Write the structure tokens for this entry.
Amino acid sequence: MSSDLFVAERGTGRSQDLMENGHHSYRLGLSILALDLLGSMLLVVYVTWAFFNFLANPGSASLPSVTAVSVAAFVLAVFGVVGLVLLYSGINDFMSGTRQAVDWLVTLREPPVHTATAKIVAFVCSDCGGDIAEDEKACPHCGATIDGD
């Protein structure tokens, strides 16, 4: 659904802002998660390579330090959480904006509901000039009684 409709009809409304912000947060979250996945894969490849290199040459090769691997894993975990939060926030904002826009469109298409029925004006009050319905016994505006037919 194009957001151009909302620009033309409402200018820059809250629903359009939510949808645009949600779209940007969603894309940023996906980008961070993709980089996080790539970093995780590189970390696993590095640790695996270092381990097999150590097994092949036990005297000359050394394993990576636990601290360095732990710090890298922690940084990747933090980026993963940030990416998931942005992804969730983006989807939530986009859906909120979409719901507001749909609600606004529905209100445009619904006919107005009239609860009161219109009364037919049969007389004009001779005292105040107010309209009097056919079934009234007195003027609803000034209270003057209606003379008989």
User: Anything to note?
Assistant: The CA atoms of residues 103 and 109 lie 10 Å apart. The longest helix spans residues 66-109.
